[in-house]
Amino acid sequence: MGTYRRHGKSTIADKLFLISEVTLLCLSSLIASYLYNITLSSHPVIPLDSRLINAALFAAAVMLCALSVGLYDQKLRESHGGIFKRVVITLLFSVMLLEGIIFNLIPSLHISPLYLAVASLIAMLSLSGFRALFHYHDITRISRRRILVLGAGERASIIERRMRRNVDKRFFEIVGFAYIDGDKSASIPESKLVNFDYKENLFQYVIDNGIDQLVIACDERRNMLPVEHLFKCKSRGIDVIEILDFIERETGQIAVNLIYPSWVIYGNGLDLNQRFKTNLDYKLNLVLALLLLLVTWPIMLVTALLIYLEDGRKTGASVFYRQVRVGFDGKPFYILKFRSMKPDAEKNGARWASADDDRVTRVGKYIRKYRIDELPQLLNVLKGEMGFVGPRPERPEFVNELEKDIPYYSQRHNVKPGLTGWAQLKYPYGATAEDAQEKLKFDLYYIKHRSLLLDLTILIRTVEVVLFGKGR
């Protein structure tokens, strides 16, 4: 029962959303094949079983491409026009996937380019309209968990600061924050505080107010929490969760400023039990790197030529840039990139790169935006110094300072650095120590939850970063 209350209600909207989209995509395909049958009488009629197989293939291809452009990002914030643009790009990708790969491998399933065009047009209209209705009229409200935060001090205020936007609270609503003895002064608004005798009436308050989840976020725990009431809540199916786990689950990051040693030692994850991260991991990275080199070498050749023509022939500077970075187990290695800055960019010493850095060349501006400057790092992958997915490697000068100021920063070196990572998907461009701390929260989440499925998800979602110039 407890498991149902914890996860079931928060996933009802997700399941409804996915089932609805699959249904719309299948219907788009079936309508298109039906129109094909009745309008092109000179062609053989497509049997129902073939039409059903095509509908399933069409739906699968579109949903995979939708994932790659961020349409299944729970915190996607776009206007109607932005959603429509992503839907159009999704359908263009799915057409290329089906026509270029699937139907070439299984030509017996190919109906006609006309069928695919009509199915895509119907899907474009239906998906755009459905998403506008679903997201912008807040249908997901029906599945929100009602949460009571036990705490109104410094730790609890982190929830208030990080989850102010509606997009951050898609699956829950905070009923209020309850002050617990020992809480330090914080900035939680008076209107969000709830006043009752938690030592005597916590269980009754939970029942009377339909609370689904209790978040333990008090500043002092020893002998402060009403254990008997918490036990009664737990036995009645009310979820009781610690603030660290709550933030991790809802934001996809680990709050490093709340971590305590016992959580790291006794908690799940943060180990090396996932054995695919050894020899198999290198083999997968090797194959992917070789395939990507075969596809991108013309882009790399043109990029090198443009860098040379802009300033390389005048200054004699290389089109490539080698720089020491900290890798697996803290060992240094040379990362290889296309040079995107002026040759004398660091004449005054190392400094953080910024979003509008005046050291960036004209060519560099574009290759950085679309991550073309990172392509030479495929050679680092071939050498085994990097993987495709992992925390981005940082410079030793910055690492030495960050390890002094940010707790657990060195833990990001427990896995190989990557071309892309969870932090690059979830956090915008950052160029300060504060940004490094925010990205560490996502890096630790990745290290704790890393798996082949998560890696594949990150790789697919990286397509969105490249297409829309997001992240870093």
Describe the structure.
- This protein has three domains: 2-139, no CATH class; 144-251, 3-Layer(aba) Sandwich (Rossmann fold), CATH 3.40.50.720; 275-468, no CATH class.
- It is 53% helix and 9% strand.
- The protein contains 16 helices and nine strands.
- The chain has helices at residues 2-39, 48-68, 80-105, 113-136, 154-162, 198-208, 227-235, 243-251, 261-266, 279-315, 362-369, 378-382, 396-405, 422-426, 433-449, 452-468, and strands spanning 145-150, 172-178, 193-194, 213-216, 239-242, 320-326, 332-338, 387-389, 418-420.
- The strands form three sheets. A five-stranded parallel sheet has the order 3-2-1-4-5, sandwiched between helices.
- Helix 1 crosses helix 2, helix 3 packs antiparallel against helix 4 and helix 10 runs antiparallel to helix 11.
- The protein is flat, with a radius of gyration of 26 Å.
- The relative contact order is 0.08.
- Belongs to the bacterial sugar transferase family.
Could you say which overall geometry the principal axes of the C-alpha atoms support? flat
Number of domains: 3
User: Count of helices?
Assistant: 16
Question: SSE order, as H and E?
Answer: HHHHEHEEHEHEHHHEEHHEHEHHH
Number of strands: 9
Biggest sheet record: 5 strands, parallel
Mean pLDDT: 84
Uncertain stretches: 1-10
**Within the largest sheet, what's the order of strands?**
3-2-1-4-5
Structural class label: alpha/beta
Helix content: 40-55%
How far apart are the first and last residues' alpha carbons, in Å? 42 Å
Radius of gyration: 26 Å
Content of β-strand: 5-15%
InterPro entries: Bact_transf, EPS_sugar_tfrase, Sugar_tfrase_EpsB_2
Family: Belongs to the bacterial sugar transferase family.
GO molecular function, one term: phosphotransferase activity, for other substituted phosphate groups
Subcellular location: Membrane
